[in-house]
């Protein structure tokens, strides 16, 4: 069963309701397979950019990279209900799709795939994980770490939707944003574990986070929900991560790096009239296991990359950001 808030928006996504477009809007799995088959016959490589709509410049940096590296680029827009907890705002995410389809930028892609919830969940979908039936994919030991601690069913939803999209499109390459760094590593592992060839883990590309050029705030669909005051405070998360990065590079232990970053957020929160910001976490994780580092761990040059990531509440909006230490993307 579909969550009641979602139902009207799914109905409104019927083909006839879509705006006119000069690029193919593929709304069913058979249609996207046909498009893919034609590309295969012409020996054309296909780059894939999965999104949930509400397009911004961060999405466009993925599209640009795909355009540069492939003959054809397909972008999907699917607000995947399985990655939203029942209390999260799925309806607002849906409202953004129509606006995205009207933007000029996605017209540079070769095709847009807009599946319905019914196409993506042929066995039906229930928003309550305990009542769900059918096939769901878990990436055990990785999906529970980091963001998974706050969003327990999130990566199960992401993995399930991504594998379905990959099976429908069979892309040569797929592009994901560094802003959602855990998602990038989980998708790579998913492709490796399930022995996927289209794409295999080496063809999952991580594109650096696109930021506001003035204050480095990571672009995100969620930024649209910030108040004017909240928008001013939002870059504090990245500033805090930079403080932690500096301390790490100076040789401090993890616990001290986190403390310095936390102090900065506390200080900024103290100067805000409305005390709008609250740090959820700042953590250092191993990029292979995704396990948190030991408190006493400090920088070891030449070791494998470390994920320095954080989440911060700005009013009722939860923002995430990260820095990958010692890695060339
Ligand atoms: N600032 C960014 N730079 C690069 N890629 C990004 C950026 N923001 C999002 N992406 C990537 O775009 C893809 C689609 O993301 P999505 O449609 O969920 O947008 P979003 O801005 O991440 O939304 P939300 O704010 O709900 O997290 C993902 O791979 C995501 O990592
Ligand atoms: C990858 C994704 C499209 C899967 O639903 C989503 O998690 C997102 O937009 O990052
Ligand atoms: N880009 C991540 C999607 C989400 O947070 O639901």
UniProtKB/TrEMBL annotation:
GO biological process, alphabetically ordered: pantothenate biosynthetic process
Reactions catalysed according to its record: (R)-pantoate + beta-alanine + ATP = (R)-pantothenate + AMP + diphosphate + H(+)
Domain of life: Eukaryota
Pfam families: Pantoate_ligase
Group of enzyme by EC: ligase
Cited InterPro entries: Pantoate_ligase, Pantoate_ligase_C, Rossmann-like_a/b/a_fold
Enzyme Commission number, as recorded: 6.3.2.1
Signal peptide coordinates: none
Pathway stated in the Swiss-Prot or TrEMBL entry: Cofactor biosynthesis; (R)-pantothenate biosynthesis; (R)-pantothenate from (R)-pantoate and beta-alanine: step 1/1
Molecular function via GO: ATP binding; pantoate-beta-alanine ligase activity
Keywords of the record: ATP-binding, Ligase, Nucleotide-binding, Pantothenate biosynthesis
HAMAP family for the chain: PanC
Family: Belongs to the pantothenate synthetase family.
Protein name: Pantoate--beta-alanine ligase
Species this protein is from: Mycena sanguinolenta
């Amino acid at each position: 069963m579909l969550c009641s808030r979602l139902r009207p928006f799914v109905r409104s996504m019927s083909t006839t309701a879509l705006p006119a477009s000069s690029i193919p809007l593929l709304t069913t799995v058979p249609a996207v397979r046909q498009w893919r088959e034609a590309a295969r016959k012409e020996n054309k490589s296909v780059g894939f950019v999965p999104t949930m709509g509400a397009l911004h410049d961060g999405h466009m940096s993925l599209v640009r990279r795909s355009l540069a590296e492939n003959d054809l680029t397909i972008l999907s827009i699917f607000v995947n209900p399985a990655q939203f907890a029942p209390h999260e705002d799925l309806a607002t995410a849906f409202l953004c799709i129509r606006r995205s389809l009207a933007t000029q930028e996605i017209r540079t892609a070769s095709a847009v795939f807009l599946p319905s919830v019914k196409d993506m969940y042929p066995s039906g979908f229930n928003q309550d994980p305990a009542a769900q039936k059918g096939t769901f994919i878990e990436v055990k030991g990785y999906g529970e770490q980091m963001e998974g601690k706050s969003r327990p069913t999130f990566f199960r939803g992401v993995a399930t939707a991504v594998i379905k999209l990959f099976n429908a499109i069979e892309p040569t390459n797929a592009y994901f944003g560094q802003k959602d760094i855990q998602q990038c590593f989980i998708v790579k592992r998913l492709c490796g574990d399930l022995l996927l060839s289209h794409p295999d883990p080496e063809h999952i590309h991580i594109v650096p986070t696109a930021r506001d050029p003035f204050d480095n705030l990571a672009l995100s669909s969620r930024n649209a929900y910030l108040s004017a005051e909240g928008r001013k405070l939002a870059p504090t998360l990245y500033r805090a991560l930079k403080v932690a990065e500096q301390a790490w590079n100076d040789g401090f232990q993890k616990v001290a790096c986190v403390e310095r970053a936390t102090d900065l957020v506390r200080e900024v929160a103290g100067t805000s009239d409305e005390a709008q910001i609250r740090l959820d976490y700042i953590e250092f994780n191993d990029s292979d296991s995704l396990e948190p580092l030991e408190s006493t761990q400090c920088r070891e040059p030449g070791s494998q990359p470390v994920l320095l990531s954080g989440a911060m509440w700005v009013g009722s909006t939860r923002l995430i950001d990260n820095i990958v230490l010692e890695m060339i993307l």
